[in-house]
Specification:
The complex is a heterodimer. By secondary structure, chain A is of the alpha+beta class. Chain A has nine helices and 22 strands. Chain A folds into two domains: about 230 residues, Rossmann fold (3-Layer(aba) Sandwich); about 130 residues, Nucleic acid-binding proteins (OB fold (Dihydrolipoamide Acetyltransferase, E2P), Beta Barrel). The C terminus of chain B is likely disordered. The chains are: A alpha+beta, B alpha+beta. Chains A and B meet through helix 5, helix 6, strand 16 and strand 18 of A and helix 5, helix 6, helix 7, strand 17 and strand 18 of B.
Chain lengths: ~375, ~375
């Protein structure tokens, strides 16, 4: 099956007056499958919003091609692309009520008045704006405007749904419920969607696959489990996860059938060849220095673990404990869904298992191995 | 004697009653996080303590003395606010040192102290930069360093991690308490993030509708919220609320939830005949396959991962929605469809529908009221 949305070698260069050119998006190639939900995730200035605006048609591409349902669209006006969008700056029409704004998006279809009314009602219920359907955009809150704008995009039949921070302004209580409903709607109707967010919680909750961007470059494009369990490089590893991965510089020491990772001014984590398989040893090769990483949720606490460390902080968040330990002059963070009862200053046993170890090249920052497998 | 003793504080701006009788005592060396939704007056309260605004009524005691009439610079309070407020023409080093130069500290000593606090806050490498050359996170930490360097015995921090990127925010969240404890300061820390409030505070003071709705340890605030208003502010996702009317059946209070009959623990007998909101934390609801006594028949609508948990959106008979959550993302069935939710009865919360107050269950084994 061919991709629904396809970007090939897309570049975006801005030429701000009086300043040097800004290369916002660099040689971006990615495909979004039919019915797939894709998130563009990154910190501010990573190029995610420029990418979304090029897809929607609000920005020209500097180079490269964008195809939607096998049709080249990068030179087409936004309205000619068959794209439904909810953008922060793409506001509701002030002279129309919220109901009229949403219905207006259906105008060009050949729907009966009854069908239009029913669809507006359905989508309004989904985003909980039934009570404000007859109000004007200027008289409702920012969060309500955002939901109305989302409803206006979702009510349409389009080849692609393009959403810019779709829940950025909503209060947390509503957000959790809306995420579930929105995901169900998009999946049930196989609505191909691409959205921008800086919030990985949002990306994880909604997207089938997440494109992590930084410095205008696509770092990795994968499902959330893949991003967590097989991050392509140190950037992704330390960006994804709440809290993100613990990483330490380490020297590799080979002794008989054991490989040890000695942290500078810290402990040494040793593994036998039965734990650290041949694929991983091969990926390390002759390197003397690597970066090792372990996710906070995989740091094991309790008796029987190999190392000990002093607790620097222990925070209970109601449903999980975040524990920080002093290791090699840095913090090693562990997360447990069972409450950890240890006081600051206590020395506690902890351990890292070979199956949860991530190994990176310190020079290129690229991943070498994850668990038992080479990257 | 409390280090900060706030009694019945009122403050309005024109017709806007922001604070309507705030009382709060904070002990020496204690970290209290001041938490509440935006617009509840957290920053206003901080500014009253600092002496930037005078209160309309009520008193603020600092170190055992009434602070009324004492100007901000005489209160001996260190402050770091959200909007940085750094001197634009000075380097980060000079900005931090400015808190000491005014006090005639020796130059060598100043340099040492600035260096030490900068190391702790991980801005040692940018001390020579002016604010314009610093990222928002660095500016915020520079402002924090300036507040900390003078070793104030009272420190007011207004959402200092707000603009810091996620990775650094986690680090700072873990390191700040130790840092503040080492300095020995009494700290009031304003935040809008319940996780930050729980993580950093010895106690969390919840400001709601112009009053302190509850001030307690993080774990008690979460497990024993004073009211439904407080309970709703904690948890990710937040707790489910279902209207119930407990009835006495065979010496125990029973409630109907989505067609299921749930027998409440013995301590809830006195709720029979009343109108309540049942609060169910998502993590106290477990999805099981078959029916079981007290389990609610549901339709699983969607499963969304959330921070190493899975959030299950379900509908009960009648269409009412509930959120449940489970630890781990892998082991949860991905398929949607019918299932049953078993609530953990030890974690049940009941709130009076009229007042919103939590019903405090009688101690089991007698002795309760």
């Amino acid at each position: 099956m061919s991709a629904s949305l396809s970007l090939r070698g897309v570049d975006k260069v801005y030429y701000p007056r009086g300043r040097s050119a800004v290369h916002a998006v660099k040689a971006l190639s990615m495909d979004v499958e039919h019915g797939e939900i894709v998130a563009l995730l990154g910190s501010s200035g990573c190029g995610k919003t420029s990418t979304l605006r090029m897809v929607a048609g609000f920005e020209d591409v500097s180079a490269g091609a964008i195809a939607l349902a096998d049709r080249r669209v990068e030179r087409l006006a936004p309205a000619a692309r068959n794209v439904a969008m909810a953008f922060e700056g793409y506001s509701l029409y002030p002279p129309l009520t919220v109901r009229e704004n949403i219905a207006f998006a259906l105008k060009r279809g050949r729907l009966s008045a009854g069908d239009v009314a029913r669809r507006v009602q359905e989508v309004a219920a989904l985003v909980e704006i039934e009570s404000i359907l007859d109000r004007y955009p200027n008289s409702i809150s920012g969060g309500q405007q955002q939901r109305a704008s989302l409803a206006r995009a979702l009510v349409r039949d389009a080849a692609l749904y393009v959403l810019d921070e779709p829940m950025g302004q909503l209060e947390p209580q509503l957000r959790a419920v809306l995420r579930g409903r929105l995901k169900r709607l998009l999946k049930d109707r196989a609505m191909t969607s691409i959205f921008v967010t800086h919030d990985q919680t949002e990306a994880n909750a909604l997207a089938d696959r997440i494109a992590v961007m930084e410095g205008g470059v696509l770092q990795q494009f994968a499902g959330q489990h893949e991003l967590k369990e097989r991050p392509a490089n140190l950037y992704v590893a330390t960006f994804i996860g709440e809290p993100p991965m613990n990483v330490f510089d380490a020297s590799v020491v080979r002794d008989g059938d054991r490989t040890s990772f000695e942290l500078d001014n810290g402990p040494s984590f040793g593994f036998g060849d039965n734990e650290l398989g041949p694929e991983v040893r091969q990926a390390i090769g002759n390197r003397r220095k690597v970066v090792i990483g372990v996710r906070p949720h995989h740091v094991v606490l309790g008796n029987g673990c190999g190392e000990t460390a002093r607790i620097v902080s222990n925070q209970w968040l109601g449903d999980q404990s975040h524990v920080a330990m002093a290791v090699a002059g840095k913090l090693l963070v562990a997360v447990s869904h069972v409450r950890v009862r240890a006081a600051i200053g206590d020395t506690v046993p902890y351990g890292v298992r070979a199956q949860h170890l991530h190994i990176f090249d310190p020079d290129t920052t690229a991943a070498l191995a994850h668990g038992a497998r080479a990257a | 004697m409390a280090q900060i003793e706030i009694r019945n504080l009122h403050k309005s701006f024109k017709d806007d009653n922001i604070l309507k009788g705030v009382s709060l005592g904070i002990d020496k060396g204690e970290i209290v996080t001041l938490f509440g939704p935006s617009g509840t007056g957290k920053t206003v309260l901080l500014r009253l303590i600092a002496g930037i605004y005078p209160p309309d009524a009520g008193t603020i005691g600092l170190r055992g003395r009434d602070a009324a009439g004492s100007p901000p610079d005489k209160r001996g309070i260190g402050m770091a606010f959200q909007n940085f407020a750094l001197f634009p023409h000075m380097t980060a080093r000079d900005n931090i040192a400015s808190a000491l130069t005014a006090r005639k500290t020796k130059p060598g000593e100043i340099a040492c102290k600035v260096e030490a606090v900068a190391q702790l806050l991980k801005i040692g490498h940018v001390l020579g930069h002016t604010p314009r050359e610093l990222s928002n996170g660095q500016k915020q930490r520079t402002a924090l360093a300036r507040a900390l360097v003078a070793d104030p015995d009272i420190l007011l921090l207004d959402d200092p991690l707000r603009n810091v990127d996620a990775k650094l925010r986690y680090e700072m969240r873990l390191e700040l308490p130790a840092l503040l404890k080492r300095a020995g300061s009494t700290v009031v820390y304003v935040t809008q993030d319940f996780k930050e409030a729980m993580a950093l505070g010895d106690r969390v003071a919840v400001l709601l509708d112009g009053r302190i709705a509850q001030c307690d340890t993080p774990s008690r605030i979460y497990a024993e919220p004073a009211s439904v208003g407080v309970a709703r502010l904690f948890g990710d996702p937040t707790l489910n609320l279902v209207e119930v009317e407990p009835r006495m059946v065979d010496n125990a209070a029973e409630i109907q939830v989505g067609g299921a009959t749930i027998r409440l623990p013995a301590g809830y007998a006195a709720t029979a005949g009343g109108s309540y909101l049942l609060g169910l934390r998502p993590e106290s609801l477990r999805l099981i396959d078959g029916p079981a006594p007290g389990a609610i028949a549901v339709d699983l609508v969607a499963v969304t991962p959330l921070n190493e948990k899975s959030v299950l959106l379900v509908t009960m008979q009648g269409g009412e929605e509930l959120l449940a959550s489970e630890a781990g993302e892998r082991d949860v069935p991905r398929r949607t469809g019918p299932g049953h939710l078993a609530p953990d009865l030890d974690a049940v919360l009941l709130f009076e529908r009229s007042s919103g107050r939590r019903f405090i269950p009688a101690e089991s084994g007698g002795g309760g009221l």
